[in-house]
Amino acid sequence: MAECHPVGFQWVMEAKARGTKVFHIDPRFTRTSAMADHHVPIRAGSDIVLLGALINHVLSGGHDFREYVLAYTNAADIVSAEFRDTEDLDGLFSGFDAESRTYDPASWSYEPAEEGEAAPRGGEHAGGGRHHAETARPDQYGSGGATAHPRPRRDETLTHPRCVYQLLKRHFSRYSPEMVEQMCGIPAADFHRLAAAVVAASGREHTTAWVYSVGWTQHTVGVQYIRSAAILQLLLGNMGRPGGGILALRGHASIQGSTDIPTLFNILPGYLPMPKAGVNRGLEEYLAHAATDTGFWGNKRSYLVSLLKSWWGDAATAANDYCYDYLPRLTGDHGTYSTVLGQIDGTVKGYFVVGENPAVGSSGGRTQRLGLAGLEWLVVRDMTLIETATFWRDGPEIETGELRPEDIGTEVFFLPAASHVEKEGTFTQTQRLLQWREKAVEPPGDCRSDLWFYYHLGKRIRQRLADDEIDRPLRDLTWDYPEHGESREPSAEAVLREINGTGPDGRALSSYLDLKADGSTRCGCWIYCGVYADEVNQAARRKPGGEQSLVAPEWGWAWPLNRRMLYNRASADPRGRPWSERKAYVWWDEERGEWTGADVPDFERDKSPDYRPPPGATAQAAISGTDPFIMQADGKGWLFAPSGLGDGPLPAHYEPHESPLPNLLYGQRANPARKIYDRPETPYNPAGSSRFPYVLTTYRLTEHHTAGGMSRTLPYLAELQPEMFCEVSPELAAERGLVNGGWATIVTSRAAIEARVLVSGRVRALRLQGRTIHQVGVPYHWGWAGGGVVTGDAANDLMPIVLDPNVYIQEGKASTCDIRPGRRPTGRALLDLIEEYRRE
Amino acid sequence: MGAREWAGRWPVLRQLAGQDPRRDAARSARTDALVPRTATADSVARSVCPYCAVGCGQLVYVKDGKVTQIEGDPDSPISRGRLCPKGSASKQLVTRPGRVTEVLYRRPHGTGWERLDLERAMDMIADRVVETRRRTWEQTCEGEQVRRTLGIASLGGATLDNEENYLMKKLYTAMGAVQIENQARI
C-alpha cells in the first residue's frame, strides 16, 4: 500500500500512531513492510490457506462475535441435504460437470422453512443444463444480487449438522497452522501471532480491516480469495463497522467508475446484467432472471426501465417494453481475452483502444499483438504513441522476423487524447467517491477528450444510417448534448445530469428510491442517482476537510446516496444500539423514530429494528429491521454462498494453474472451473515442471503506473526508476549464477525477456514441504517503445492466459518460470530458446 | 548600490563573516525577488490526480493558457495536500515536449505514419464502423435473437471519466457491439 497507494497509506500510519497493529502479508518486503509491525512473507498463490486457517482458528477457538454472527449472517441457515463439500469429494463440491468444467449450483441452496415451499424463481434456479451454465451464470456474477431463498430453515443453536456454521467448521478444519507452514511458507509462530492479533482486535470494542489489491484478485481463485476474507470478517463482526471492512485499493483513478458505469461486456450501468440470448427473451423474462426479488434489487424494474428511458427517450414506451429489444444479447464469454482470440481468428474486425495498452499491459503480450495484427482497423486514443499503436513497426514479433510490417494489414488511426486537466468530468475513486475535476486549459492541437470523440463519432454514425430495422436503436438513441467552444466539446455536466436522472417534471432526481417502473423517470445509472440532486453537481463539492467531521460528507459525493460506509446498519446491534460507545457510527433514535449517526444510514431511515416483513413481501419490504445487508436476497452476510459463484459456495485452496507444488489439501490440484484456452499462441508451463521451477509474480513500483504509458514518458519518473529489473534472493542468485546489476533472462512457455538483476533479501526464499521455493518478482511497467524515456522488455509477455471462472480475470500474480544469467538472444535465436523450453 | 554595499549583500561573504548560512545569510537580491509560480497564476483549477484510485486533490495553476504548476490540495480530506512521486510529476504528463498532439495514420501494409486531418479521421472511422457493423451483423445465433455485431470490440483504460464511460457504453450498446471491456477486468 505504501508503494502503490502512498498517499492513502498516511491513514494507516495515523492508525498505527494510535496503537493499531499493522501486519503486511506479501511475498516481497516493501516500503509497507518497513512501516508495518510485522512483515509476513508468503508464497504467491497460497493466501486461501492462510485465510482458511484464520477462519479455522476463529471457529475452533470460539472467537466468533456470536451475537453479530447469529443476527447478521446466514450461519444458522440450513443447507440442502444434497450438498456435498470438498471434504466429501476430495476437492470438488457437488454439482460439478467434468465435461463442461462447470458447476450446477442447485445442491448448494438453502432448505426452505416450510415443506414444499419452492425456492424463488430466477437467477441460479431458473432453467438449467449446460446452455444455462454458459449463458447465464459466470457472465452474470458481479451483477444484480444472487438469488437465494429469503426464508430458509434456521437453527439458532448452530448445532444442526447442515447449518452453515457447522458446514464451515467442517470445511475449514483441515486449514491448520501446519498446513500454513507447508503451503504458504509461514512458520507456525508467525501464524499464531497474526491470528492472536486479529482476534484481539475484533469484537464490540475493536475492529480489524483487511486491505488488498490485485495481489488478491489476479488468480484463478481470485474471487474466492475475497470470499475468504469476507467469511473471516463476518465471523469476527468486522463488516459495516468503523475501522472494519475489506478494502479494495483499486489501481486507477476511475477504475471503480469504470465498473459502476461499466465498459464491461457483462453488465449495464449500476450492475444490471446484460441480457442473455435464449434466457432473457423479453423484458419480463429478463427481470425474472436479472437479480433477486427481495432486498433492494427487488426494484430492478425501476432501475432498468429508467435506464432504457434515458437511452431511448420518447421511443421507449410501455407498449414496446421500453425498447428492451434494442439491447444486444450475450452468448457466453465476450471478455477481453476471448475478444483477442477472436481477432486472431478473424471474427473481430475493428478495435477501439482507449487509454489502454494491451500490447504490453495484458497477459500474453504476444497473443495480444497477434490479435492486433489480425484486425482490419484499429483506433488508438492515447496521450502518447504507446506500443499498441506501433506494434506493426517495432513490436517484438518484427524483431524476431515472425511478422513484417508489409504483411500486416491493420489500418491504424492514432488520435491524441486530452489530459485530465484539459477536460472536465468525474473520477470515482476507491471508496466510491465521485470527485469532479475542473478544466484548467484547452487541449493542444488535435488532442480531444474521449467524451468529444464518442459524442462526435456517434453523431457521424447517426448521419450514415439507413431506414433499416437494425439501425433503429441508433436512430432512436438520445444523443443530444450542449456543445461548448471552438472544438464543440459536449457538456460533461449534461452527461452527469443524465446519469443522475430526471423525474416526470424534468427536474434532477435526488434518490434512486424515486425511480419508477412506469417510464415516468429517466436515470442513466441508478446507483449514481443523487449526484446531481437539487440540480447541483454534488461531486464538485469541496468543503475543506478541516471544517468537517472525519467522515467529511461534503467533499465530493459517494454512491449510493452519499453513504461513505456500506452496510453501516451493522455498526449497531440488532436493537439499533451501538455495539460499544467506542465504535458508535450509525444507530436507531427511538424518540425520533429514525436512524442517525456520523454517516448517511445504509438502511431505510425510518425502518424500526422491530420491523418484520409480512409474508410475500418483496424488495426492501422483505428486509427485516435487523438485516443490514440490504442488497442480499435475505439481508444477511453470506458465510456460505448458496448461489452466485462459479466455483463453489465456499473458498477452497487450489494451486495456481502453473505451480511448482502439489495441493496438499485435496486431490484436486487447481480450480476445476478455471477458464483455460487451448491455443498454440499461448501455451502453459506444465504444473510441477522441473523446467520452470520458480514462482513468478508481477508487481508495481511507486514511481511508475501500470504499463507505463503515463509514467515511462515522464523524465522525472523515468529517472527515478530507469530500467526493467527482476528481484531475486541471494540464494537464488547463487543457485543460478545471477549477479546484482547484471542481466538475467526469464523464460516461460510464452516468452523470454531480459532484465537487470536486483539481488536482495526483500524476496525471501521460502522453506516448505522439505524444499526451498524461490520466487522471482518482476515489475510490469516497461515496454519496448511507447514514447518512453526508458524502455525495457514487457513482463506481461511471460504471463499465461488462464482466468478466474467468476470474473474472467487473469492469473497475473502467480505462475512459474525459469531464470538464467545473461541477456536474452535476439531474432530467430529467441524463438529457438522458447521452443527448446516448450519441448522439454 | 556601491561596491562595498554590493559586497556586503553577497551571501558567501556574510556567511564567511559568521552569519548563519541557513537563515538570512543565504538570501541574495535575486532570491528576494523570486515569487512562486503559484502566486502569479492567472487561475487555479481544482482537479484530481489521474494515477491510482486514492483520488488525491490537485490544484492546477495556469498562466497565459499554460499549466505552470500542479500541487496537492490541502483542503482534501483524502490527501491533505500530499501527492506521491507520480502525482507530483503529473505536470510533465501535460507539458512534456514529446507529447504527440497530431492525428497519425498507418495505411494497411504501410511502413510508416502519415498525417491525417482530425475531421477526416473521424469521418473515416465512422465509415468503417458503419460498414463493419453492417457486414458482421448477427440478428440471431442458434435460433435466438441476439441483434449484435461481434466484428467491433473496445478496450478502455480506467482513467476514463464516468461521463466518457457512459457515452461509450450507450453508443456501443445501441450499435450492438458487446465486446466492450475495460482495465477494470484486467
UniProtKB/TrEMBL annotation, chain A:
Keywords in alphabetical order? 4Fe-4S, Iron, Iron-sulfur, Metal-binding, Oxidoreductase
The cellular component terms of Gene Ontology attached to this UniProt record, alphabetical and capped at eight, are: cell envelope
**Recorded superkingdom:** Bacteria
What Gene Ontology molecular-function terms does this entry list? 4 iron, 4 sulfur cluster binding; electron transfer activity; molybdenum ion binding; molybdopterin cofactor binding; oxidoreductase activity
List each copy of the Molybdopterin oxidoreductase domain by range: 415-459
What are the Molybdopterin dinucleotide-binding domain coordinates in residue numbering? 694-806
Its BP terms in the Gene Ontology are:
anaerobic respiration
Q: Which family does it belong to?
A: Belongs to the prokaryotic molybdopterin-containing oxidoreductase family.
Q: What is this protein called?
A: Formate dehydrogenase subunit alpha
What organism, scientifically named, is this protein from? Sphaerisporangium rufum
Q: What is the lineage of its organism?
A: Bacteria, Bacillati, Actinomycetota, Actinomycetes, Streptosporangiales
TrEMBL record, chain B:
- Entries under SMART domains matching the protein: Molybdop_Fe4S4 (SM00926)
User: According to its UniProt record, which cofactors does this protein need?
Assistant: [4Fe-4S] cluster
Superkingdom to which the source organism belongs:
Bacteria
GO biological process assignments: anaerobic respiration
- GO CC terms in record: cell envelope
Keyword Cytoplasm found = no
According to the UniProt entry, where is the signal peptide?
Answer: none
Keyword annotations for this protein? 4Fe-4S, Iron, Iron-sulfur, Metal-binding, Oxidoreductase
Report the InterPro entries cross-referenced here.
Answer: Mopterin_OxRdtase_4Fe-4S_dom
This entry's Gene Ontology molecular function terms read:
4 iron, 4 sulfur cluster binding; electron transfer activity; molybdenum ion binding; oxidoreductase activity
* Gene3D superfamilies per the UniProt record, alphabetical: 3.40.50.740, ADC-like domains
Q: Name one Pfam family in it.
A: Molybdop_Fe4S4
**Does this entry carry the keyword Signal?**
no
Query: Residues in domain 4Fe-4S Mo/W bis-MGD-type?
Result: 42-98
**PROSITE patterns with a match to the protein in the record:** 4FE4S_MOW_BIS_MGD (PS51669)
Q: Which family does it belong to?
A: Belongs to the prokaryotic molybdopterin-containing oxidoreductase family.
Q: What is this protein called?
A: 4Fe-4S Mo/W bis-MGD-type domain-containing protein
Q: What is the lineage of its organism?
A: Bacteria, Bacillati, Actinomycetota, Actinomycetes, Streptosporangiales
